[in-house]
Design brief:
Two copies of one chain form a homodimer. Chain A is an all-alpha fold. Helices cover 68% and strands 3% of the residues of chain A. The first copy, chain A, has six helices and two strands. In chain A, helix 5 packs across helix 6. The longest helix of chain A has 41 residues. Chain A is elongated, with a radius of gyration of 25 Å. Chain A binds a DNA duplex through helix 2.
Chain lengths: 136, 136
Amino acid sequence: MRIGQLAETVGLPTSTIRFYEQKGLMPAADRTAKGYRKYTAEAVERLKMIKFATSLGFALDDLPGLFASGEGLDHEQVMAHLQDRTAEINHLLNTLTRQKTQMEYLTQRLGELWRAGHCMSACELDGLLSELSTTK
Amino acid sequence: MRIGQLAETVGLPTSTIRFYEQKGLMPAADRTAKGYRKYTAEAVERLKMIKFATSLGFALDDLPGLFASGEGLDHEQVMAHLQDRTAEINHLLNTLTRQKTQMEYLTQRLGELWRAGHCMSACELDGLLSELSTTK
DNA sequence: TATAAGCTTTAAGTTAACTTTAAGGTCAAG
DNA sequence: CTTGACCTTAAAGTTAACTTAAAGCTTATA
């Protein structure tokens, strides 16, 4: 299988696959006589794993630690990665939840003023935003 | 008030304040005889608003549309911004919630295998990850 | 055989929101 | 009068994860 076919199979652009190889996330591909990259099903699996891990929000730089190769995976290290990422996710969830509440309040408040016939000037909006930012 | 004092007051580095000015988010500051930027309380308010809006996840490029200046703010446009950002937040919340579930499953499953005495090889971990990625 | 699709490489560009650097002027204190 | 804190500018660097460009070779098809 050449790179275009692989790209098609996993749903990634060829440029990304080359990029992953360059980053060391994919082993250097075998080549045909003319220098074309040649892949097997292993590459498909590898790319799917990369896609999965990144879909969980892991950075590309985390992956080597996550799929450490060689004898005996370091369990502690893998678990530590998972914990770290879980903590990050929880932190983001808290942040976003807070943001959502504020957005709802802001939207509602602005809607009220609008319906009340206020012809809001930038200055008034500024006041509203300031009010909210201190409410925070 | 000079830039250092302003920076201190709002809790931003001076470089960021200059950057905001350059971006057009802050009006070009008045200068002292020797060319130092000179600020009043207005600048403090403006920066607080910027901080607040960015804390809601708005991009700097969204802010001109959000605090449009001049006569008569475009309510529809402001509301549209708020709706867009709310939609983004909801999307992110969904994504993160999904990620959290997957992370929990992965962590638990890996913990089980570990406690069961499996001396996981990279290959086995790959299997686990693949399994999960198809579960998704 | 020619034309297009597909492959190669290295290097530079993209985006966001800043930060850092370089080279220098100003000001208050001791 | 010198030392250090603070200010100025323009330009380049940072990070992540890619993408795009440039220039050229290969392969399949009509």
